[in-house]
C-alpha cells in the first residue's frame, strides 16, 4: 500500500530539498527526456521560476505528441450534498446548517436529460458527499445505471470504498474514479478532518491502491491547493503517481489542481497559489509524465484556461453546476464551490476551436467495457 511508501519520505525533509534546488538542478531536469522524482522537485522549486518559458515549450511539445490538438470535455453531476464528515474547509461540512439534498432516481434522470441539452457530453463526473447510509454503494450503483443510457463514460468522485465495491461498480457502468487526497501532510490532515470516515488518513491514501486492484479504468488524483505547502503536496502527488503506474500499469491517470476558495463556515485558504505557480506545476507534471491527463475545472477563469489549453491541459469541465439539481432548476442547496468560468459548454467549445484545437466530447465507449 502507498501509505508504507509515503512513510519513507519526511514532509519537512522533502520541503527542504525542494527549496534547496538550484538553477543547475533545473537545467539538468530540463535536459532529460524522462525526468525522475528528484528532477520533478527541481521543476516545482523557486529556482525553476526563471525557466517558465522553457518549461512551457517542453510541456506544449509533449502534450502535442501524446494528445494532439484536442481538449476532452466533461461535466459534473452533483447527486448529493449530504455528508457525515467535518472537513473544516468544505461547505458540505456536516455541521453547516443548510438544506441537504440527495437526488431521487427521477431527479437524476431529469438532470441527465438537462445536461444532454447543454451539449454533446459523453463524459459525466458524478459527485457526492460522503454519507454511506444515504449515498453509499447501493445508491451509487442506481445512479450509474440511470446515467448509463445517456453517457458513455461515467466517473465518480465520492467516498473512498472497499476494493470489492469498486469492482462491483465497474460492472454497473463505472469507468473512472476521482479522489482528492486533500493533503499528504498526515499530521495536518488530522486537523482538517477531525471527524467522520475521512479522518482516517491511511484509508483515504490507500484508496487508490484499491481502485487499481479493482481494475478501475481511469484514476484521477489531486490535492487541495491552499491547505499546506503546495510544493511539497504536489511532490507527493508525483511520488504517488509514479508508484501507481508501477503497480497498476493498465490504468490511465489524471491530475487536477483545485485552488481553494473561502468556504461556508468561514475557512480561509492557508496558502495562495498564483497563476504563474499553477502554470509551473502544470508544466512540471507534463514534463515528468508525458501521458497523464491534466484537467482544469470551472474554478479557473476563462482567460487562464484558454492560455493553458495549449501548454499542457488536456481536459476541461464546462457548464458546471456544483449543487444537486442545479441543471433542472435553481435549487435551495449549497454549491460546493463557486464557479469562475460560467460560460455555456458550446461557448467554451467555440473558443477551443478558435484557438485551433478540437473539443472532444467522447473518448470512451461502453462497448469497450
Structure write-up:
The longest helix is centred in the middle third of the chain and has 18 residues. The chain is an alpha/beta fold and 369 residues long. It is 41% helix and 12% strand. Helix 3 crosses helix 4.
> In angstroms, what is the radius of gyration?
20 Å
Strand content: 5-15%
Distance between the termini: 27 Å
Low-confidence stretches: none
Structural class assignment: alpha/beta
Counting DSSP H or I runs of 4 or more residues, the number of helices is: 16
The average pLDDT score comes to 93
Largest sheet: 8 strands, parallel, barrel
Widest sheet, order of strands = 1-2-3-4-5-6-7-8
Q: Element order, helices and strands?
A: HHHHHEHEHHEHEHHHEHEHEHEHE
Shape, per Cα inertia axes: globular
Write down how many β-strands occur, each being a DSSP E stretch of 2 or more residues: 9
In which range does the helix fraction lie?
40-55%
Amino acid at each position: 500500500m502507498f501509505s508504507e511508501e509515503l512513510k519513507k519520505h519526511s514532509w519537512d525533509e522533502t520541503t527542504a530539498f525542494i527549496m534547496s534546488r538550484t538553477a543547475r538542478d533545473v537545467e539538468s531536469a530540463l535536459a532529460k527526456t524522462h525526468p525522475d522524482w528528484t528532477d520533478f522537485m527541481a521543476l516545482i522549486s523557486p529556482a525553476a521560476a526563471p525557466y517558465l518559458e522553457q518549461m512551457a515549450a517542453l510541456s506544449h511539445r509533449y502534450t502535442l505528441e501524446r494528445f494532439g490538438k484536442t481538449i476532452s470535455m466533461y461535466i459534473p453531476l452533483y447527486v448529493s450534498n449530504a455528508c457525515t464528515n467535518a472537513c473544516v474547509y468544505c461547505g458540505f461540512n456536516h455541521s453547516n446548517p443548510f438544506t441537504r439534498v440527495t437526488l431521487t432516481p427521477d431527479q437524476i434522470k431529469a438532470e441527465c436529460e438537462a445536461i444532454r441539452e447543454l451539449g454533446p457530453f459523453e463524459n459525466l463526473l458524478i459527485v457526492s458527499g460522503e454519507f454511506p447510509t444515504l449515498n453509499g454503494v447501493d445508491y451509487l450503483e442506481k445512479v450509474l445505471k440511470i446515467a448509463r443510457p445517456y453517457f458513455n463514460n461515467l466517473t465518480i468522485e465520492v467516498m473512498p470504498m472497499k476494493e470489492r465495491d469498486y469492482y462491483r461498480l465497474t460492472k454497473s457502468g463505472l469507468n473512472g474514479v476521482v479522489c482528492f487526497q486533500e493533503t499528504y501532510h498526515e499530521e495536518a490532515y488530522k486537523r482538517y478532518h477531525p471527524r467522520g470516515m475521512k479522518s482516517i488518513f491511511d484509508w483515504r491514501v490507500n484508496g487508490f491502491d484499491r481502485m487499481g486492484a479493482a481494475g478501475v479504468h481511469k484514476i484521477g488524483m489531486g490535492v487541495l491547493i491552499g491547505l499546506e505547502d503546495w510544493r511539497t503536496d504536489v511532490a507527493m502527488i508525483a511520488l504517488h503517481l509514479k508508484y501507481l503506474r508501477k503497480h497498476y500499469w493498465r490504468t490511465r491517470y489524471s491530475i487536477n489542481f483545485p485552488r481553494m476558495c473561502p468556504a461556508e463556515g468561514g475557512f480561509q485558504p492557508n496558502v495562495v497559489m498564483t497563476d504563474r505557480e499553477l502554470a509551473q506545476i502544470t508544466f512540471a507534471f507534463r514534463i515528468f509524465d508525458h501521458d497523464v491527463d491534466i484537467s482544469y475545472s470551472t474554478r479557473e477563469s476563462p482567460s487562464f484556461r484558454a492560455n493553458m489549453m495549449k501548454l499542457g491541459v488536456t481536459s476541461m469541465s464546462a457548464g458546471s453546476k456544483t449543487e444537486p439539481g442545479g441543471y433542472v432548476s435553481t435549487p435551495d442547496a449549497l454549491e460546493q464551490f463557486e464557479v469562475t468560468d460560467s460560460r455555456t459548454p458550446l461557448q467554451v467549445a467555440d473558443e477551443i476551436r478558435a484557438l485551433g484545437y478540437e473539443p472532444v466530447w467522447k473518448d470512451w465507449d461502453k462497448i469497450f467495457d
